[in-house]
Amino acid sequence: MKKTGKIEYGYGDNTQKGFTLLELLVSIVLIGLIVAIVGASMRLGYRSLDKGEKKAILSERFKVSLNLMDAQIQSGVAFKTTGETVDETNQYIFEGKKDSLRFASNYSLMGGQKGYVIVAYRIETGTNEKRTLFAQENTIGIENQKEVKLLEDFDDIHFEYFFKEATAEEGQWIEEWTDTMRMPAKIRIHLVRGNQQISLVVPMRTTSTTAQSGTLFFSMNYRGGIFS
């Protein structure tokens, strides 16, 4: 009897391996972390850009406000009041206190107004103890009172006035002007925000024939920038 050979077919080890559930979960977690990190970085970048833009706007507004005040104070005019008595008539339209200033000027902050204006700066303290400086104008002979906010969110804002006796060699800064027969030669605006301080000293042109530019004095702890 003839034996028949058995034929066997071998397919080899061609089984394909796939991802396990654990590997898929790990991949999803890693992708989520990458997306979160990228998203946080983008949000931080947008916030930094927005903060930088706001800082630049505030800085520019601050510079413009000081320049306007400098020009308006330098353009002050020596108007005298019209009263019933001689003493009242000889008094200048000028009131200077630590938290307010009133004078006549031929320069309007509002723009577009011709003629002389009565200017009144006043400082108000908010509920958060921050100071805000307002400017109010009224054109002489016209009832058109207007008001604008110039400076805000400061720890301190106050005015000082340079007083010098006619026979004295040196003068001094005072917080209230009481001389009704003359006007101060210079006015100083003192500003404080945090550990930064700035003083704007403005000469009044009414006391001299030549206009001078206002002078800025920074404190020693000033680090650059406008109240960064």
Give structural notes.
- With 228 residues, the chain is of the alpha+beta class.
- It is built from two helices and eleven strands, in the order H-E-H-E-E-E-E-E-E-E-E-E-E.
- A hairpin with a 2-residue loop joins strand 9 (186-193) and strand 10.
- The longest helix is centred in the first third of the chain and has 54 residues, at 21-74.
- The chain is elongated and about 105 Å long.
- The model is unreliable at 207-228 (pLDDT under 50).
Brief descriptors of the model:
11 strands; alpha+beta; about 230 residues; 2 helices; six-stranded antiparallel β-sheet; five-stranded antiparallel β-sheet
Main pleated-sheet profile: 6 strands, antiparallel
- Distance from N terminus to C terminus (CA atoms, Å) equals 108 Å
Rg of Cα set: 36 Å
Number of strands: 11
In percent terms, what proportion of residues is strand?
25-35%
Structural class: alpha+beta
How would you concisely characterize the structure shown here?
This protein has 228 residues and is of the alpha+beta class. The chain has helices at residues 21-74, 86-89; strands at 76-77, 94-96, 100-105, 117-125, 131-139, 146-154, 156-163, 172-174, 186-193, 196-203, 215-218.
